[in-house]
Amino acid sequence: MNKKLAAALSGGAVLVLVLSGCSDDKSDKVNDWAKTFCDQAQPQIQKRANANQLIISTAADSKPVTIKAADSKAFQDIADADRALAKAVEGAGAPPVDNGEKVQQDAVKELNATAVAYDGLKKQVDALDTGNQQKFADGLKVVSDNLAKIQNMDQDAVAKLQAGELGSAMAKQPGCQTPKASVPPSASPKAGAPDAKPDAKPSASAKSEE
Known about the structure:
This protein is mainly α. The protein is built from six helices and no strands.
């Protein structure tokens, strides 16, 4: 029951902007837009990766208080990162592609909506009863189910930015590459509790289902 939420977080909660396959003949304007956005986005993409890793690396056999704290921080960080990404899209201006203004507006709207959704998940986690193991597990199940509902929102938030020539230009920018996640030592798994083994029910998220 724990594995599903961690799997969802590792697969869906992290915004991955890097794409495969790109063509090399990009217009200077498109490349300039991609650089402007990706340079601003990089710290936020890193923050999201770290938040995801925090959840996965918090051992499922940790105390409910520890799991609750990890999930709460992770969801807050993802919400903050999404808002900052929306501002980065705004700051970069309308991309120089067909319907650029609409592409920009849609991305900003969806990123802000996703941030609100993660705020909601944080509130749900903060309200969990850590004094009752069964209630806590049941509550995490609800959080997991709600997370599943926003997975598509999360992944689609920048889908239009990633399309075509613009997406290819972004994929070439270091700031939009998939970062290596890191978590503070205090959030690392306990000795003998592997990161994300099939039987290692990962974390706060873990203790729920996906």
